[in-house]
Amino acid sequence: MTIRNWVKFFFNALVIGGLVTAVFGLVVRWEFFSGYLQSGEIWQFLGALLWMVFLGFTMSVVAQMGFFAYLTVHQFGVNLFRTLTLWNWVQLLIITVVLFDLIFFRFRLTSGETGRTLLYLTLLASLIVVSALTAYFKAKWTKKHTLISALFFMIVITTLEWLPALMVRSGNIDEWVTILLFPLLAVNAYQILALPKYNAMSDADKAKLDERRKVRRQSKERKSAKSN
């Protein structure tokens, strides 16, 4: 990918992360934000909303770091297990382990917390559904064998990026766990679906650059031939 297209890719992901976090922050923490509006503290409201946007920027950067780390891990996995088929089975096993770990260890659900149980099951369903849809469109728009890899990235890597929030046990953590999941899902879905487009744009830019270089070289050769 060329530097110009990488910059576009980076800033588009940044904007997605900021907007999604701001929207879900308003919805999930509406009681907090509505207090500023009811008291007429518009600047405080805007400041809190802007803080949400910057939080989304941070989550976007985390997601992008995770994405490029995954590209390395994926290549390493294919080389280690020799075939893509075997690596896909390993990825499916890891997906199963991660989902099991989420349900039984990270969420720490108890029978006496019905509301919290419903919240976390909804978050789990969101993770799985968004991941499955993203993997489906990835396979449809590129190649069928990318389905498992895309599903692995969306579930396993997103969970790893989400893990620091899940490990906190104090304060109104359920709200933050909810808010932080969706920018990660949005940015990761964008990255894995948009990457081929930016790679194609980069290839086209490189082809144009090579053509311009070829034309300049031919022009210099003609001038040199005329002078001789």
Number of strand segments: 0
Average pLDDT reading = 89
Name the helix and strand elements from N-terminus to C-terminus, one letter apiece: HHHHHHH
- End-to-end separation in angstroms reads 41 Å
Secondary-structure-derived class? mainly alpha
Largest sheet: none
Number of helices: 7
Radius of gyration: 23 Å
Apparent shape = flat
Helix content: over 70%
Low-confidence stretches: none
Q: How much of the polypeptide forms β-strand, as a percent range?
A: under 5%
Explain what the structure shows.
It is a single chain. The chain is built from 7 helices and no strands. By secondary structure, the chain is mainly α. It has a domain at 59-194. The protein is flat, with a radius of gyration of 23 Å.
